[in-house]
Write a structure and sequence with these properties.
Layout: H1 2-35, E1 40-55, E2 61-75, H2 94-101, H3 106-110, H4 118-146, E3 149-152, E4 156-159, H5 164-168, E5 175-179, E6 182-183, H6 187-196, E7 202-208, E8 211-217, E9 220-225, E10 231-236, E11 239-241, E12 245-249, H7 253-280, H8 291-303, H9 306-325, H10 332-345, H11 351-379
Antiparallel strand pairs: 1-2, 3-12, 4-11, 5-6, 5-7, 7-8, 9-10
Helix pairs in contact: 1-4, 1-8, 1-9, 4-7, 4-9, 4-10, 7-9, 8-9
Length: 380
């Protein structure tokens, strides 16, 4: 019984988290489409049969659909699969086919996505990922002002015996000033930067008494578990903080905004660095997760408190934005690539070329989904 309740709790929070970030993403497409006078026929969270919905005064059908693993905005004039409203569970109907078979009237062209300029179509497509990033900035901004930000002095309290730090000559009481020339203001910065290096040598600038020294340390990649008991590989120095902390520091609106932008940038940077390491073979593919692992993390974040759950949604939103910007047909980045080629050629790619591109994108996305889901099952 308890296990069933735990699974239900995880599923519910997974649906909530995913629905929020998908809504944010699709809202970006929707708002910029409306701003460019494109008629939006439907706005769906999830895809498949409609569960519940209503039609607003502009004729847009807002609805929740059966399968909560995506969403879409169906825009007037999206008669082919190459358009963005189809990418996350879009729907085709007889009206779409009719749009292709007959020439649109001038009034219809004025509200059709297909007849907007390259710049307008690109803005509509890019708006989805852009609002994902904006959502994360807003979340971090509010959190830094209301809950605060953990600040621990970057002073080493203990060096683990036979660790990378001990081998490099670090000692208790050393204050870490910078890593590879990047300033370190908090011990939390050390906890973020070191794992990102994935075991590569690091130049630590430290203050020891009255002296400033540069020390080369090579973090060791070890098997450990995170705070929730999930196994992971992580590069560690082997030091703990001195405990000299200012606890949770609340920030003014100006400083909170700057920190929120920086935090979003750090998540983006960390994601690209990790992906680059996986592509180069320096990092294993076991870190790639799919829906099952996202669901698991959703439940764990929700159990640890509302603030952590909201921050988890912000990080999930950033990752959704990044993934959608990859230049893969079927994703927003693939549509932007098609529009860039259209701008350079002065005309769009042929229907056949776009169709083959989309088939390749579909195979790639489905293959990745199968792979990450298999990774999730192995983790379980």
């Amino acid at each position: 019984m308890e296990q069933a309740l735990g699974i239900s709790f995880t599923i519910v929070n997974f649906i909530i988290a995913l629905s929020v970030v998908v809504f944010v993403h699709e809202l970006g497409h929707f708002l910029v489409a409306r701003w460019n006078k494109v008629r939006c026929d439907s706005f769906s969270i999830g895809f498949g049969p409609e569960l519940i919905g209503y039609t607003d005064r502009h004729g847009t059908r807002w609805k929740f659909s059966l399968i909560p693993l995506g969403g879409y905005v169906k825009m007037f004039g999206e008669a082919d699969i190459a358009n963005p409203g189809s990418k996350e569970g879009g729907e085709n109907n007889e009206d779409d086919e009719a749009e292709v078979e007959r020439e649109m009237t001038p009034k219809e062209k004025a509200i059709s996505f297909k007849y907007k300029t390259i710049g307008q179509r690109s803005a509509i497509v890019f708006a989805g990922p852009a609002v994902n990033f904006l959502f994360a900035i807003v979340v971090f901004f509010v959190m830094f002002m209301s809950v605060g930000r953990p600040v621990t002095e970057p002073i080493i309290g203990k060096v683990v015996e036979d660790s990378a730090a001990a081998e490099a000559g670090l000692t208790a009481g050393d204050r870490i000033i910078a890593i590879d020339g990047n300033a370190v203001d908090r011990f939390e910065d050390l906890q973020r930067i070191v794992p990102l290096g994935n075991g590569a040598p690091m130049r630590l600038t430290i203050q020891r008494h009255e002296s400033v020294l540069d020390i080369i340390a090579v973090p060791r990649v070890v098997d450990e578990t995170d705070a929730f008991g999930n196994p992971q590989k992580r590069a560690l120095l082997g030091v703990s903080s001195s405990g000299e902390t200012r606890m949770m520091v609340r920030h003014t609106p100006i400083s909170a905004l700057g920190l929120a932008i920086s935090q979003t940038y750090f998540v983006v940077e960390g994601t690209f660095v990790a992906v680059g390491q996986i592509i180069s073979g320096d990092r294993g593919t076991e870190d790639l997760g799919g829906p099952i692992r996202i669901a698991k993390f959703s439940g764990q974040a929700a159990k640890s408190g509302f603030a952590n759950f909201v921050v988890f949604m912000a990080i999930l939103s950033i990752n959704l934005g990044i993934i959608n910007l990859f230049p893969v047909p079927l994703l927003d980045g693939g549509h932007l690539l098609f529009y860039a080629i259209e701008a350079l050629r002065g005309r769009p790619l042929s229907d056949q070329a776009q169709e083959w591109g989309l088939r390749f994108g579909l195979v790639l996305v489905l293959s990745l989904m199968v792979f990450v889901t298999w990774n999730d099952i192995l983790q379980l």
